[in-house]
Amino acid sequence: MQYSGADLIDLETYPIHVEGQTRDRILAGIREDLARDGCAVLKGFLSPAGIAALRKEAENVSTGAYRSSNRTNAYFTQDDPNLPGDDPRRQFFDRSNAFIPADNFTSEGPLRRVHDFEGFDRFIQDCLQEEKFYRYADPLADVIVNMADEGNGFPWHFDTNNFTVTLAIQNAEEGGAFEYAAGIREGNENFAEVQRVLEGTSDKVTVLELEPGDLQLFRGRYSLHRVAPLKGSRRRYVAIFSYVEEAGMVGSMERTKQLYGRTLPIHQERAGLRADNYID
Description:
Blueprint: H1 5-8, H2 21-37, E1 39-42, H3 48-60, E2 66-72, E3 93-100, H4 110-115, H5 120-128, E4 134-135, E5 143-148, E6 154-157, E7 163-170, E8 174-175, E9 178-181, H6 191-199, E10 205-208, E11 215-218, E12 224-227, E13 230-231, E14 236-244, H7 253-260, H8 265-269
Antiparallel strand pairs: 1-11, 2-3, 3-5, 4-14, 5-14, 6-12, 7-11, 7-14, 8-13, 9-10, 9-12
């Protein structure tokens, strides 16, 4: 079946490709939310047909997911015994999850049809108000689907890329809430507050329940966040579109291997090329 972005996106509610008062009003609301806490949600961004199409595609390529189960810290780094025992870089948590890498999604499929829809990138850039704005160049991670079953979740972490755009496709029966501490390392690592989040004593955590079809913009490079464990037999699917501040940016060798089970030559070629000095 041939898909078009017009079939998949609710353009009546969200005319992202048409300049005018409606688009300006939507942008103003999103910018206000992002300025407040680095997170904004467009409820019902996908049409019912779009939700069904993306769900079917995710199910069809689910065998391509890389499943992993290990212990990781918020930075996806190895333990450093030279640091104090209560340093957040030494706090490790169980992670059991799966990602369907980007090379499983064809240019003609619904997921990339949404991503490639006329005006989509420009709309996201206008929402974020970023002059330096590029699609993530990682061929395994520019457009992916996070797949999770009962008991899975994703522990507290920071994103490698500066801006993440997610599209809820299917929820589990229970659990799977998105929890985040907005902007706690904007400007510096702020290890003290990170540790409070990890130990459950921070008052800066927001809990967000997303529904299928919701589009979320999130500044995950600076905001510690997690997905709560899932319950029930229904699988959770969330698509992730990634944007960064520097052209040609890809994931680190170690982190790419952790998340996707493999690396490509491009990851080695571009190792160490980063726009900031934050821990990965």
